[in-house]
Amino acid sequence: MDVSTCLKSLLLAIRQYRNNRSAFNASQLQKHIEDVSGLKCGGVLFSGRVLPSECLSGLMEVAGDPNTSHALSGSIISLLAQFASDGEAKEALHSSYNFTGTLAAIIHCNRTTPEEPLVLQCLNVLQRLTYNVRTMNRASHIHELISFLMHHVQSSNDDIVKACLGLMANLCRHDVSVQSHIKSQSNVKAFYRDLLNFLGHNCLTVVIFALSILSSLTLNEEVGQKLFNAKNIHQTFQLIFNITVNGDGTLTRNYAVDLLVDLLKNPKIADYLTKYKHLSVCLSEVLGLLNSKDPDTASKVMELLVSLCSVPVLRKLVCETVLRPPAPRLQPGTRRGVQARGSEPSLALVHWVTSPLDGPEQCYMQALSLLAELFEEAIDSSLCSSAQSFVELLLQEVLVLLQSPDSTEGDQLLKKHCLRAGRVVDFLLVLCGDDALRMLVSQRLSPEVCVSQVELLLSYNQDLSGSTCTTSNYQLSQMCSEVVLKTLELMSYLRQQMPDMEASFYRILQDQRMVTPLSLALTSNCRELVQVALRILFEAAPLPDFPSVILGDSIAANNAYRQRDGELSIRSSSATEDVSFMGKSFPIMHAEPPGSAHQSIDSLIEKLQSGVELQEKVKDVHMSEIIDVYEQKLSALACKESRLQDLLEAKALALSQADRLIAQYRCQRAQAEAEARKLASLLKDTERKKEDLQTELKDHLLEVERLKSDSQQLLEHNGRLQAVADQHQELKGTYNQLLSRYDKSEGMLKDLQAAHISLTQQAEGLRKTNEGLKRQQERTLAELAEKEQQIKGLKTDVLEKERKITGLQNDLKRQEEQIHEMEENISSLRKELHKTEQARKDTSIKASSLELQKSQLEAKVEKMEEELSKHTQMISMIHSLSSGKLKGDVTANLSL
């Protein structure tokens, strides 16, 4: 059964159970939950589609219902707990579906029976779900959950105590609102005493949980200053390093590393760690964990090392320890094998950097961040010379990571590639800070890798701009833009050493797709990104085909979007129009029909014309009355104008954006048509060249056939020589048999001589046998001499055959050289074709710029025509008024 069918059946079972909560419907729902649990459908469940979202919402509702049985709730929690380790699924459960609030509600409903297995299950799942995630304060029953945890840390059940402490450590970490709520409780002092008592617990996991909670709550208070003072902090360091190295499980190691990372943010404790006497030994032990095969352990160790690099003294120590030359291995029996365990942490870093793209993301990301930190320190402290061989090895592996992934793998893999490529480019930019390392990078990196990287990201960014804008698409677009700009900055650094890189760099800068990354970066709130964009813009602005006008429009659109977004956020309570975000790089467009602005303008013109017609009908009215009518009309139109002004202002920006898009589309269409015509002409030329090359290819194929027949004859001759060699091997075997017989005869002779010494009475018989043996030996020696002569004759024959083989091989080599010369001629023809293709691209770019100027002039002519029509209308109105006045005077004279 496929995933879609299972989800449909599950949704039907949920609806049946909500309509009728019978035992049969509950068993059917539980059966469907077990079926879904057996499928690997995490990507489908959290894809945001309607069917999976309804299933998840229904499961949340059923699990959070107090009337639901514990078995059914446990099955639902077990199903959803499978996805708590996946990053995106965990975020969706936490934010979109409020799984945290559902579990807290279940615990709150069963607070009187904490020994229930369902409560322990909810606590364990909550601990996994809230690890390294900030809890939303609007989640239901969070305060009741905190009270439950504070009350049951003194439970007799060790599993409940451990789960409560771990969950409390997650909730307290980096969450000021939770910390304030805990400190405001009346039993907070008793809670502190319980945590201090846990520091002497025999389970290291409980000790780490208690220390984590105390550091979050009391680090800047009197209790924390006493707990983490200069006397006690060294014991804490030793405990953390022991747990990190020896470990009480991955969970305990993760919390120990998180505790040390949080403590290092305090300058006083960071200074204590620099004075810790066992730091170098502990650091060597920690670096030895990089050789572990567990990616979670390695990523946590690298996170700890990156945190240590935030302290200048510790960063220098880590750099010297990792980048030092490998020490000689100790002999067996040395002290605990400490140096052998962590002798080459740099090679372990290379291993984790080059881990597969679909593997654990934190491993290669943390490894690249750590390498960037280490080489920043190495460049500042002049340690690059000792690490140059390691840099050469590292560049061979790292530059492979910039190769574009397969486009059929999906957006998720491309997002991971974008993240890793950004870190790789950051690392290469760090290496370019040193002249010698920059030269190494320029020798290893090819311009084609950078160009393909930029082309991939620009194309994907353009696809994202054309699709429906969501938060994930906007974040991915910003990420792609940032990597593109960093890659261009790297190309700018290396263009002096690489002439091909300079040409590729300037060609990319004139691409119109560069408008989106530059506009997003220039309007970003990240200082480093703005500076990078300004440096690239400084290089691109003097270029002739740089789209500066489009860039200005995009920046203005982004600024207008930000301003409008701020106004809407202020007036969100009184806003009545629906707003849809058509793209983060474009302004806001209201959800009204596209032609509403034009319709309102047309209606205004019709009303003006109707007013004029009314004035023509009333010809006998006095001039003052006519003026009063016009004044009333003008005042009415002014009121309407004031009412329509807001709509016109809101639509003007959208219309300008639509005009820009239409102009871009026309430009691209004209460019595509020109390219198509040129491609058609080139296709004809290539067809003619193809026919010529086919005739040449037929001649070459005939020559290849002749060469194949010659090589076949040589192979047959080689087979005959192989048969002779086999016969030679057989003769060698017989010779070896004769030698073995000879050895046996010598052994028998020695035995007989010993018997002659020991048995003097049988000397005559032994002499006779000895003479017989001597005669046999002489015969064997004669036979051996004859065989040796035969072997020498065979050797001379083999040498003659080998000479013939070498002659034939030389003939074959000469023929292969002729084939190689033909291939070089073909490659030269391909290079000439590439040059003509490059010239065609340059002419197409110039033609596109001329088309753009033509479209701008046509737009100006249309505006002038519209103004001319308005003037003609005004003249006709004046003529009509003047004619009415003259007729009125004539009638007055006639009456007199």
From TrEMBL:
Alphabetic keyword roster: Coiled coil
Q: Look up the coiled coil feature and give its residue ranges.
A: 655-874
Recorded hits in Gene3D superfamilies, A to Z, give: Leucine-rich Repeat Variant
**Keyword Calcium among record annotations:** no
Q: Which InterPro entries does the annotation name?
A: ARM-like, ARM-type_fold, CIP2A, CIP2A_N
Specify the CIP2A N-terminal domain's residue ranges: 21-566
Q: Spell out the Pfam families in the cross-references.
A: CIP2A_N
Determine the domain of life of the protein's source: Eukaryota
**What is the name listed in the Swiss-Prot or TrEMBL entry for this protein?**
Protein CIP2A
